[in-house]
Amino acid sequence: MPSLKNMPKTSIILVNPQMGENIGAAARVMMNFGLDDLKLISPRDGWPSESATANSAGALDIMPPVEVFDTTAEALKDCHTIYATTARPRDMRKTVMDAHQAANDIADKQSQGLKTAILFGGERAGLTNEDVALAENIITYPVNPEFASLNLGQSVLLMAYEISQATSKTTPITLPDGDSAPVTQSELDDLIGRFDQELSERNFFRNPDMKPTMMRNIRNMLTRTNLSEQETRTLQGIISALIGNKVK
Amino acid sequence: MPSLKNMPKTSIILVNPQMGENIGAAARVMMNFGLDDLKLISPRDGWPSESATANSAGALDIMPPVEVFDTTAEALKDCHTIYATTARPRDMRKTVMDAHQAANDIADKQSQGLKTAILFGGERAGLTNEDVALAENIITYPVNPEFASLNLGQSVLLMAYEISQATSKTTPITLPDGDSAPVTQSELDDLIGRFDQELSERNFFRNPDMKPTMMRNIRNMLTRTNLSEQETRTLQGIISALIGNKVK
């Protein structure tokens, strides 16, 4: 039986975090439960951060260097399955899970050798719809609706805890290989970029104001499908065929 | 089954807590998960505490008054079953549970109308052996042994979370309706038929033997996506756009 130790660990991705203290708190609770892959998207106060280091109880000194990106999409390039944490409901057709269900799902994916990532929004506004659209799954926390004040560090703590619980139970299984290897985020992005380009050239987005929403809908559909690499190639082939000429 | 709403809730008992901030943090995470019975044993800096109030995000203003006792035994007088949280192993013959098991046990006890309490030690030294001796059960957290720095608020958070999980059934998740009404099979068949026709006319299925397999793959992708009616119309529009001419 292969060891789970060598499986890729979940990335914790903080999108536009504001307070260094909260980044430090996130690092600390990650290390408490054995997670060490922290990525930041445009932290408000820059990086590195003294207040983050001070509040991490030493975690930032012993974990691998935190990576910083300008955009969420860049940080997700090597990921197969993405989870977005949101407090309020979104009008998107995605699988909605609580922390426990999500952790079990992540443990399953890890045991198949797949790379997962969890997106956490900034303290004030949470994730944008564009960020949520990058994810296959939505995680909501079952907090008291009359007092829902979970902060960023606490949200990360609950997921880190649940993942630690779930991965200590899971036994690795083997990944279906060959044709059904799951697509990476960058291959998916290539496909979505192709749709954007070909549709733009053909005036599909008649009203430019509507383009972001329509592209987000297309991304949501394609993300939800959990495409394999082979299927992604098939879709590229379909686009090429459709933009070609009729054969007489 | 009687409603759990009227059952006595678990008491959270902080024994010799030092920092007001941590008491406030405990109150906050308790309220997040529907617990509101907080008791303190000889808090170092007295009670009430401004820093506790400031750090509770309003929880201390809306929960019933916190009770303060001189000794742990006094605070436990009305309790039936007691749990002591400890980081290090104790040389005592007690039932040892993790947070998840303890929460299930507490939910069982509550459903029998029994009053439970959980003891948390102070920041520096944890519970004394005398305090642990008052408890039937020991709760340990499965933290990373190489980085075990869970603070008081975080320890209370994990128990409050697990108890909330154990005492509530997961609510079934429904998909949003409206624009996202699911597609009917006949609309889906129309869409798949459209792919078949347009792709056939453009010689996508070069080898006729492969066509059934390729069409099945396309159907699998589209079926798995659980398309809405709106999305199906979008895909029809995409096909129309792609087979059109480029706009100069």
What is the fold-level CATH name, i.e. the topology of the largest domain in chain A? Alpha/beta knot
In terms of quaternary structure, what is this?
A: homodimer
Instruction: Supply the number of structural domains of chain A.
Output: 2
What is the CATH superfamily of the largest domain in chain A?
SPOUT methyltransferase, trefoil knot domain
Number of strands of chain A: 7
Strand order across the biggest sheet of chain A?
3-2-1-6-4-7-5
What would you say this structure looks like, in words?
- The structure is a homodimer of 248-residue chains.
- Chain A has a seven-stranded parallel beta sheet with strand order 3-2-1-6-4-7-5.
- Chain A is globular, with a radius of gyration of 19 Å.
- Chain A has two domains: 157 residues, SPOUT methyltransferase, trefoil knot domain (Alpha/beta knot, 3-Layer(aba) Sandwich); 65 residues, Helicase, Ruva Protein, domain 3 (Orthogonal Bundle), CATH 1.10.8.
- In chain A, helix 1 packs parallel to helix 7 and helix 5 crosses helix 7.
- Chain A is built from ten helices and seven strands.
- Chain A has 248 residues and is α/β, with parallel strands linked by helices.
